[in-house]
Amino acid sequence: MIKRSLAMAKKNDFVVYFYDEAKNKNYVHYQNKRMYTNPNPKLAWEVNHNQAVSILAKRGQQFGGGFETHATAYANYVVDNQIPADQI
Description:
By secondary structure, the protein is of the alpha+beta class. About 30% of the residues lie in helices and about 25% in strands.
């Protein structure tokens, strides 16, 4: 029998993004009990899989969106924007 804690581990390693009118990715940030979006995923709000699906269902219907792991999101941001290594 598998322990529930191992089988249903909930890691907060996903970040949620929405697209704006110009089809730019904007990641969800959360500060002072308010949710806002920012194109930089470095300090994006990390959520688990269930929370990510819930946020997308509630707020991602106008222009679309998705979720991905935080490491993947930041790596893609660095490559797309050609950020120098000393600023990472």
